[in-house]
């Protein structure tokens, strides 16, 4: 399965950036503290190239969405709605206003895939370790 390209800035993204709406928020700070390449390395085996079918979301996009879900206590449909509605969530996940957000069933299947590969605990341990090393605490 091909991996979907995300995060390519469109006109609306450029307008918002020019207005200064990129503001400094908690998610932007967390995003800057984490070495996401280490997380991506753990996720690297989840997407297998295929010739047919719709392009998959990059695993890191979906993992970051699941983090938002955990931190904000959202159901899968609520997370889908929040990704459509909140600019800070889009930015944190690496999505632009032009990107289609993952639907609730995509998020559910990805969470199951993490559990099936026993990656959920390893990913959280890596993330927690990095945040602790940076002296950051995420309150849920």
**Main β-sheet: number of strands, strand sense, barrel status?**
none
- C-alpha-based Rg, rounded: 15 Å
Based on DSSP secondary structure assignment, what is the total number of beta strands? 0
**Mean pLDDT over the residues:** 86
Helical stretch tally: 8
Poorly predicted runs are none
First CA to last CA: what distance? 34 Å
Sheet/helix structural class: mainly alpha
Which percent band covers the strand fraction?
under 5%
Shape: globular
Number of separate structural domains: 1
Q: Which percent bin holds the helix content?
A: 55-70%
Q: List the secondary-structure elements in sequence, H or E.
A: HHHHHHHH
Could you write a compact summary of the structure shown?
By secondary structure, the chain is mainly alpha-helical. The protein has 8 helices and no strands.
